[in-house]
Amino acid sequence: MPGLLNIQTAPTEVSPEQPIAALLLIFVVIVLTSGVLALLLIVRSRLRRSIPKKAEPKPEQLDAWQESGKRMPTPPSEDDGQDPDDEEDDDDDDDGEPTPPVPISPETAATV
Question: Which helix (H) or strand (E) holds 33?
C-alpha cells in the first residue's frame, strides 16, 4: 500500500503550518458536507413527487342500533301466544260502533 509506505518514511519533524493546514482542511470538509446536506433537504422539501397511493376499500358503515338489535335476545311477548283481537276491551277493531268525533272546543261540547 503506497499510503502506508509514505507514512512510515515521512520525516518526524512537524512544521508550524501543518496543524493549521489540517484544521483548515477539516473546516472545509465540514462546511462542504453541511452545505450538501442542506441543499439536499431544501430540494427535497421543494420538489415533492406525487406518488399515487393505493386505493384502500372503505370499511362498511354499520348501523349501531341495527347491530345491537341483532345481538339482543328478543324477550317473550306479554300476551303468551294469544290473539290480540280476542280481547273484549279492544276498541280499535272495526266491528263495533264508530267512535264519535271529538268536539273542537268546550262550547261545542256543551251544545251537543
Answer: helix 17-46
